[in-house]
Amino acid sequence: MLPFTAEQFFAGFARYNDGIWPIQILAYAAGAFALIAAFLLGRNGGRATALMLTVMWLWTGVVYHGLYFAPINPAAHAFAALFVAQAALLLAYAGRLRFAGAPVLARYVGVALIGYAAILYPLVGLAAGHTYPAVPMFGVTPCPVTLFTLGLLLLARSAPWPLFAIPILWSLIGGSAAILLGVPEDWVLLVSGPLAAGLRWRQGGRKAVNSFSRCAGMDRQRMHAADKLRRQGRINHTVTVEPALSPKGLRHDIYSEMGLPARPVAGMASMLVGLVLDGETLRRESLGQLSSDNLLGLHGRGLARAVQRGQS
Fold first, then answer.
1. Biggest distance spanned by C-alpha atoms of the chain
2. I need a surface site. Which of 150, 171, 195, 233 has the fewest CB within 10 A?
3. Percent of all residues in the chain with a pLDDT value above 70, rounded to a whole number
4. pLDDT tier, 250 (very low <50, low <70, confident <90, very high otherwise)
């Protein structure tokens, strides 16, 4: 049971909009600047966008929740604290917002949420019989601010998870007004939080797979897709820590058979004499054998004769 009625809820918006006019116009200007800055200001675009969102969340928390909503709902003080905390998080992570390279689906959903918050939200309310000033306005009331924020975060490339936490929580709290208070424009808010969470989780999973599957392969070929990694998973490549390779620390050298080892390798199995004509268990050659191989090619001739005998 809510401590206020629907009539008191919408009357609070009327008092609020009358009391802050013309801040609503400035809120639309701040939203337009945040969207433009995200894509036109390069490295500083993320900071500028985060600053505009910070102002929106701070204003909504202190002014709307703290001054106008608290008289009819004691829980508004806790809501105000949540919005101030989100403003602090936006400032803290401002330098990590990059608005390029987001997945296509996330971009489409982000643009849809931004357009809904700024344009369709008041039109849906108007169609439901909610007229100004007794309506939630863009940029200065909780639900449109949350929708706008989630939209911008989805346009960013892997925005930090902490920035999603409070907007997702508020999408459930504020979205309940669609059911309890008959606010049809908040139905989108109710689903926007879980949808944004799923898309952000999908970005994180894809980033982890891509960062691994694009690493240089063991055969010094770069793998450009996860399915290629899956196809090559059946190949058991030799790696440095196996005794077949020279001990060269933690780095790998897939062509280490072409170089001399740093020291004899313990536990190395003897090679077949019939294949290479030499055991070389300890990787040692006499000076005479070394000179015969390099200068006269006697080792190669003996190997050729062995092959011929095997084929006869």
1. 104
2. 233
3. 66
4. very low
| CB neighbour class for 90 (10 Å; exposed up to 12, middle 13-18, buried from 19) | buried
Distances (CA, A) of 290 to 155, 283, 284, 299: 65, 12, 10, 9
Q: Is 262 helix (H, G, I), strand (E, B) or coil?
A: coil
Whole-model pTM: value is 0.67
Q: Which residues pair with 216 in a beta bridge?
A: 222
Q: Locate 96 and state its tokens.
A: 């990590």
Closest CA to 53 of 91, 24, 98: 91
Helices marked H in the chain: 6-20, 23-40, 43-59, 76-92, 104-115, 121-127, 142-155, 162-175, 177-180, 187-213, 226-231, 273-276, 287-291, 298-311
Q: How many CA atoms lie within 13 A of 237 on its CB side?
A: 13
For residues 117 and 7, give the distance between their C-alpha atoms in angstroms, rounded to a whole number: 23
Which residues, in sequence order, are bridge partners of residue 226? none
